[in-house]
Known about the structure:
The chain is of the alpha/beta class. The chain is built from 22 helices and 16 strands. Strands 4-5-15-10-11-14 form a six-stranded mixed sheet, sandwiched between helices. α3 crosses α4 and α17 packs across α18.
Amino acid sequence: MGLMYVSTRNAEEKATASQAILKGLAGDGGLYVPECLPTLDRDVEELAQMTYQETAFEVMKLFLDDFTEEELKKCIAAAYDSKFDTEEIAPVVSADGAYYLELFHGATIAFKDMALSILPHLMTAAAKKNEVKNEIVILTATSGDTGKAALAGFADVKGTKIIVFYPKNGVSPIQEKQMVTQKGENTFVVGIHGNFDEAQTGVKKIFADKELGKRMEQSGYQFSSANSINIGRLVPQIVYYVYAYAKLYANGVITKGEKINVAVPTGNFGNILAAFYAKNMGLPIAKLICASNENRVLYDFFATGVYDRNREFMLTSSPSMDILISSNLERLIYRIAGNDSKMNAEFMRALTANGKYEITEEMRQQLTDFYGNYASEEETSEAIRSLYQSTGYVIDTHTAVASAVYHKYCKDTLDTETKTVIASTASPFKFTRSVMNAIDNGYDTMTDFELVDELARIGAVAVPNAIEEIRTAEVCHKTVCGAEEMQEVVKGFLGVV
Length: 497
């Protein structure tokens, strides 16, 4: 028996990697986690010689061990190809004393491409492996980036349909245009009157509805998820932290075994959890710098041990982080609770019932790997402006949150020597107006696409194809509904009565 996955809310519920990928969410509402984290079995000197694709295989084979070598390599080759505009896939750029890990060179210019380019291939391989006859319906809530990346990944993939819900007034104009212009007979995009948390809660309710599940089965469908609650999303994200470390070593920036810090703009907690997993697999990481925007629920959690979503929901210039229920935090809670699924389930029940929970002092002692802080809207803009003025390098609003918090970390801890990788999670072209307004407040009269061209000019970079192709693209998806109507909308699209 290889590596098995268990539910964070019931350790008796077990699945292979391929089964966990197909299900997305465990039957009890928990998230699948590996029974134990594997150890990275390649030396940094070996990793330093590898391509991104080779690194991906070395990491993912440890987690997805019921896939054959041939199956996994085929999925990796199909994912990390010419869809990315650089052979490196995830370049590391030095700017102003930090190292920006550019995760936005894929088809939708956001870090979600790194995992969602491969998830459809993993899922279809898993379906074949498990002799699944039903059509798989990907059901996903997005705060902006997951939606388009998932749509691009699953569009016209045989045996699948994909339904994406997004907050109608809670994403950037470019993000919305990317989603609603998505082609594909199997795609369906729905704006909801509400915020991301309401969309995500609605999706979880649909997953948990046993009666609907039976009707889906009768109609030849089964649900799965492309959100980072799916372990098939999380595992590919571990890869780029290993790759970044190996590249820093290969370029002579760090010595063998030298520890680095990693700073991550954090909303749903999946991206920084991947770095945490990499650290616990043996990658030399010192601090995990968890950067929040003005929705500072995670900052408060690390400061107090209390997770409390009972607060005003803030709409910010970093909308992919406008989240008060960080779903992937549950995987960390499960781990620091000593893999006690009953204790974790109690915390999650409290979160549902009261909107908050408080971890024990013993659990808090296990969070010393993390540093949490947040950046205000003003600090986010200043991070963009100051970096551009000093280096000419332009970052997006989410990356700017991480950059601002990294500088707070340096000031608070006096640790200015440890090399730090900042996860650059989206292209500045995805949030052009916010980025350009941060650099100079004289752009108010320009249209969004005029700003795109101006950003290309001042940043001396080409406009990404992902932006060029939506300039004149036709809107294909116009459905809008209330959060309480989500299930009926899903049934209508699928023709399930």
